[in-house]
Design brief:
Helix content: 55-70%
Radius of gyration: 28 Å
Shape: elongated
Strand content: 5-15%
Largest sheet: 8 strands, mixed
Bound molecules: guanosine-5'-diphosphate
Strand order of the largest sheet: 3-2-4-1-5-6-7-8
Oligomer: single chain
Number of strands: 8
Order of helices and strands: HHHHEHEHEHEHEHEHEEHHHHHHHHHHH
Amino acid sequence: EMFGQLTTGLESAWSKLKGEDTLTKENIVEPMRDIRRALLEADLSLRPSLMLTYIQVSLPVVRRFVQAVSDQAVGTGLIRGVKPDQQMVKIVHDELVKLMGGEVSELVFSKSGPTVILLAGLQGVGKTTVCAKLAYYLKKLGKSCMLIAGDVYRPAAIDQLVILGQQVKVPVYAAGTDVKPAEIARKGLEEAKKQNIDVVIMDTAGRLQIDKTMMDELKEVKRVLNPTEVLLVVDAMTGQEAAALVTTFNLEIGITGAILTKLDGDSRGGAALSVKEVSGKPIKLVGRGERLEDLEPFYPDRMAGRILGMGDVLSFVEKASEVMRQEDAEELQKKIMSAKFDFNDFLKQTRAVARMGSMTRVIGMIPGMGKVTPAQVREAEKSLIVMEAIIEAMTPEERELPELLAESPTRRKRVAQDSGKTEQQVSQLVAQLFQMRVKMKNLMGMMQGGSIPALSN
Ligand code: GDP
């Protein structure tokens, strides 16, 4: 699993906070040590040549991160209704998002003449594949593209790019292996201008290690192209070593961002974590497979969720608050507070929740409710279907005044017959509505008190 080791380390940190009443300077010492270790050990299979840069670059990143988290953990009081370990997850999550640049960073396009994207990176990281994926991605945005084959040290790379170009149906400028990359770049760009191409993507040679010839050549190509974007392609498998790579490339040639590839593979989180911090440049795109369509924008919040092993939960909370807005939360709130929540609202809510996924997962996120198993989720989804059938068999009056059903066995019997469910199921649902009135009122009180941070921000 991608963040296996990292996630285990972090879980150990949370578990040490279970049962605590609050976060203090003292009781976060051990968990913070776990977090530091988890981040640093996320990938230590380093190349010796990069070890020094790693030590200079990665350690301070982690140290700053740990400091920021500690300050917040102790500095902000515990939110009412939230347990210390839950609050810690949230703090770490938000810091991770910040660390990775916060927002999605879009590609920049040139306002005059073709946009030029120069791709750099070590050999085998997926640069050539990224050329094609990027062209595919940009074509979908309505941009015409041209690829320039600049990997003159591997004839196979040029052939590969030509074939990929045919697949994506974009022109490929190639001039063989005898021409210098900078010359290829100049001629390719000229050709693109002639053809009124929107975006030019240049593939360059990669070495197994960073070396001077490679950097000098890249500098020359960059000078000739004057690119809009210089994107360093980084293999996610390189883990923390990426920090060193990014630093070196950024100092040597100056990059505008990075593309993280092979995120589908058996890699950890290290690479994603340090890029922004060490270079000030964001990860713009990620590759998560070998197919042309496997390239997408980089979402720092989703990545943080994945690292924490709770991506589902976090994106779900966001969706939950979105749906609440759509469903006219204020109106609903009034009804809940005055205990007028009826079967119509019930149906609206269950449908809204069904659109999001499953209600039980929301419940699972409410502090103090604990984890929900997949079996419970399936069970709940099944009962949603039953509920809908029963509510649909009610008269409009009965939906608005659940008391009618509570008081009349005859009505319940009719609804049971019409919906094809048992009388017991109908009675249960009616009882549930009344229970829900109470529960939702309490929950709403908690939310207004600001005790569910993810929903209130
Ligand atoms: P280059 O040397 O940097 O140009 O690397 P290539 O583009 O030739 O890719 C090297 C290998 O990695 C190829 O086998 C690709 O199919 C594979 N590859 C590239 N991107 C991804 C990715 O996002 N996921 C996976 N699983 N494989 C990838």
